[in-house]
Amino acid sequence: MALQSLDIKQRSATTTPSTQVRQTVEVAKLIDVSACIGCKACQVACSEWNDIRDEVGHCHGVYDNPVDLTAKSWTVMRFTEVEQSNKLEWLIRKDGCMHCSDPGCLKACPAPGAIIQYSNGIVDFHQENCIGCGYCVTGCPFNVPRISKEDSKAYKCSLCSDRVAVNQAPACAKACPTGAIQFGSKEDMTDYAAKRVTDLKERGYDKAGLYDPQGVGGTHVMYVLHHADQPELYAGLPANPSISPLVSLWKGFAKPLATLALAGVALGSLFHYVTKGPNEVSKEIEDEIEREDSEKEGAQ
Amino acid sequence: MTNHWVDIKNADLIFVMGGNPAEAHPCGFKWAIEAKKTRKAKLVVVDPRFNRTASVADFYAPVRSGSDIAFLGGVINYLLSNDKIHHDYVKAYTNASFLIDDGYGFDDGIFSGYNDQKRSYDKATWKYQMDGDFARVDDTLQHPRSVFQMLKAHYARYTPEMVSKVCGTPKDAFLKVCEYIAETAAPDKTMTNLYALGWTEHSVGSQNIRCMAIIQLLLGNMGMAGGGINALRGHANVQGITDFALYAQNLPGYLAVPTDADADFKGFVEKKTPKALRPGQMNFGQNFPKWFVSLQKAWWGDAATKDNDFAYHYLPKLGGASDVLSIFDQMYQGKINGFFCQGFNPLASVANKKKVSDGLSKLKYMVVMDPLSTDTSEFWKPHGEYNDVDPAAIQTEVFRLPTSLFAETSGSFTNSGRVIQWRWKAAEAPGDAKDDTEIMATLFLKLKEMYAKDGGAFAEPIQKLTWAYRIPTKPSPEELMMEFNGKALADVLDPKDPTKVLVKAGDQLGSFAQLRDDGSTTCGNWIYCGVWSAAGNNSARRDNSDPSGLGQTLNWGFAWPVNRRILYNRASADVSGKPWDPKRTVLKWTGKVWGGNDIPDMRPDAAPEELVMPFIMTPEGVGRLFSRDMMAEGPFPEHYEPFETPLAANPMHPNNPKALSNPAARVYKGDMEAFGTAKDFPYVATTYRLTEHFHYWTKQSKINAIMQPEQFVEIGEELAKEKGLKAGDRVKVRSNRGFIKAVAVVTKRIKALDVDGQKVHTVGIPIHYGFKGATKPGFITNTLTPFVGDANTQTPEYKAFLVNIEKA
Fold it and tell me: Among B552, B495, B488, B544, which Cα is nearest to B520's?
C-alpha cells in the first residue's frame, strides 16, 4: 500500500538507484508452527487492520476457511492431517506472503513501482501502479498474490508495512494468543527459532528446524517446523522454492533492453487503463501457471 | 479454577481432559504454551477427538465420550497400586485416615441406601465413624474401613484392561498417560488439570470432576503453584454470574437457599452451619450466619431486624427443582405462563429443541432481553426446515427489549481464576438499547408503584427492598459493586479487643472477616467482600508487578475470596510449614505468621503445631477422597453409561441393569421414552464449540461467519467409508428427537474405538449454528440432544448421546 515512510531497496521495473543514507534493520515474522493452534485470530486481525472482508463462503469438508488466499484474504490457515509411523499430527500452517529477499513477484513485475521491496525486507504491492497483468502470480514460488475481480489489481500480505513503519508489529503477530507469531529483527527471530528448535528436538522431533529457504535468498516470514526435512507436509510448503526460470528469462531479456521494455510496459498499462479489458498475459506464462496449478492439485 | 490462568505456566504437566482450551479458550491457553516453552512442561490430551489442543500436545489418547470415570478410576488404581502418591500429603491433608461408617456399602454398582422407585439414595450411611463429635481416624491408614483402604478396594476393579474395554483407549496409550500423571506425585512436581464442559455436560458430570479431585489429592497437587483443578469458564463473565446465584439452589456467594421445609430462621441457620468434624479445625462454614444475615441486611436494610429474624420471611423459599431442565419441563407441562429470557437463547442452548419449542409455545408471554435478535425470540417464526413451526398454532406473545452489549456498559468481569476486573464502557449502545440493570430497575419500580396503588398479596418484601441508588431507574455498576462488598452499619469492633474499632459505621468493609450476624453489617455477596473496600475499587487495580515470578500479581484486580489467588494454598507447604517446592513458594510459615506469595488460606497466625489443616471450608479440615453425603450418586465416583449408550450393559456391572446409567439422575416423564437405542442410532455423538465462534452470538457477526461459515459434523474416515460419504457431502444426522443436516468433515482425527468387543464410531457435532445470523442458515444442534442432566447440577448430557447418519 502507498503512503509508506520506509526506505525503498528495490522497485519493480525501475532502474533509479535506491537510497543509501540510512541503515535499517531487516525484520522478520517467525511463525512457530509447533505453537500454533489454528485459531484464526491472525486471519481476523488481518481483515480488521486492513479493512477487508471476504465473502461468507461454504464449508468444504475441512476446517480451512476461507479455503484459499484471495484478494480479500491475505492470510489463511492451512490444516493438514498427517499420519506417519502410527502417529497422527494435525499440522496447521499460516499461509501468506513470505517476503522473499529475492522476490520473484518484483522481478516479474513489468509495472514501474507496483512492487516495492523496502530496506527492512518487506515486499509491498502498490496497487495504484499495478496493471493487473498477473506476472507476480507466476513469479511467486509460493503461489501467494491474488488478482482482484473487482479492480483487476494484485493483492497480498503487506507484513503490515504501515504498522512496521511506526514500530508496531504486524496485526497478526499482535493478535496471536499463543505467541506462535513473533515479530522482530531477522537476527532476533533466527535466535529465537534456534531455541524453539532445541525444545522440539528434546521432545523427539529430530528433524525440527527453521524454514528460511535460500533459493529465494531467505525470507522475512520464516517457519519453525517440527519436520523441517519435509516442508511439503505443511499443505505443500515447497522444499526448495526458487523463482520460475521463465521470470529469469524475462529479466535476462529485459535487462539489456530496459528502456525499450519500460516504454512497452508504459504503453501496455496505458492501453489497459483506457480499455479496462481483460488482462493480457503471454501464452507462455499462462501455460506456466496452468502447469503449476495442475502440479499443485496433483500434490494434494 | 482453584488456581488461575497465569498459574498454568508453573505446571510440569498440563493434563487436558473434558476440555479443549486451544479451541475454546485460546487466550488463556497461552499459559500452557508458556509452560511448554519455559518449564519444558508436557501437555497431555485425552479426548474423543484429536482436537486443536491435541495438535500441540506431547501425547494424545482417545477415549469414548461418556467413559471418563472409567478412565480416571483407572488412573486412581494405577497411582495406588504402583505406589505413585504423595504419602505425607495424603496422610495429613486428606481424609484417607478417616474411618467409614459400617453401614456404608457398595454392591454391583449400587451404593447403600438406594431406592430405585425414587431413583435416589438415602445417604444415612455415607458418613464417618464417630467418637462423640469427631470422626474416628487411623493414622496408619491400614484399617479396613479407612477411606484409604476403601478407596483402594473400590478402584481395584478399574484395571488397565477394564479401562481399555470401557473407554476404547488402547491399553498402552492409557498406561502412557498414567506414567505422565504419576511423575507429578513427587513433592516438587505438579500437574494442572484443565477441564470445561467436556466433563460437566454428562449425566455423571460432577463425578468426573470428583475423580480428578481424588487424583490431585493423591498426588499432592492441590494448593500448589502449577497444580489444582481448573474449570475453564466460557463467557467472559460466566464465573461472575455463577457467583451471583446462577443456580436456583444458591443465594449469592453459594449460600444455600431455604426451601419450603425451612420454615423458620433458627432452624435454617442451624441446619446450614456445619460443626467441625475434627478438633482444632477452622471449619470456616461456621460463619454462615454472618454471611446470611449480612445478605438479608443488604437486601432489606432497616426492615431486617433481630426481632423479625432479619426478615427471613421475606426471602422466597424454593418449592422444588428450579434448574434449567426443570423450568423447561414445567413450561412443557403448561405450568408456566410468563418467561423473562435475559441474555439467554434457550431454543438453541437447552437440550431437545422440540421440547423447548413446545414449552415456549405454551406460554402466554415471553420477554426477551438481548442485544441480538436471537433464535429464541423467533421460535414461533417459520424458517424453512431449519425451524419448521406453524405460527398460527402459537399464541405466545413475544416482547423484545434490546439491551446493551458488554462493551457498551461499565462493570466487572470475573474470570475463571476468580479475578474480578473492572472494565470501562467502550461505546454507546445503538438505538433504543438499554442496560439490563435499567430495564430490571424500571420494571421493579413499576411493580412497587402498582403494589402501592392497588395493593396485593405480601407487598412488604417489594415495598421494603433496599433501593438507595442515586438514580433509582439506573443503579450504577459502582453503586452495585459497593453494595455487593458491603459496609458497616454500626462500628465493627475487634473481637479480641473490643476497645478497637475495625471499621467505622458507614464505611465499606475490608473483608468478610468483618461480617457480623447481629445485623451491624451488610454484604450483598460475602465472597466479594473486599472488592470495594475503604481503599476504593480494588477490581480496577492494574499493577502487574509480580515479585514472585509466579504470576500472582496480587495488585491486579481483586480475586475472591480476600484476593487469594490459589485456593488451599496452605497445602503447598508441609505440615511444618516448609514449602514442598521452595522454587515455587506459595506460602510458608515465618515463625509468627504465614507469609509467601499469596493471601494465606489459613488463619494467619495458626502455627503449624496447632495442626489446623488446609481445607478450611470442610468441617474435616482436609480434602475429601470420600465425599460423605455431598454427592447424589455416591461417595466414590463409579462409572455409569450415558443415558444413550452404544452398549447393552455397563461393562463394569454387566448383570445389573439398575447400574447401567446414573441411578440417581432425574428423568422426567416422557424423556426416558425419548431416549434412542443403539439398534436405531448406532453412533456416539458429542457436541462442542469451535474457536471461530462464541455460542450462538457470533453467527450474527460477518467476520466470524467468514472464518467458519457453515454447519458441519465430523466423522472418521472409517465410518465415512462404511456410509459412502466423502468430505464436503451433505449429511443428515438423526437422534430419537429430531434431525439436522450439515456438511461432512471426514477426518483422521476421529478413530473408531474398540469398546467391549464392539466397534464404536463417534460423530462430532459443533453447536453455534441456527436460523438467524450471518452464517449460512443452519439447524440447531440441540435438536438432537437428550433432556437429562447430571444428578447434582442438572447440567444436560450434551456430550454423549446416540445418532444415526446418512447422506442428505
Answer: B488
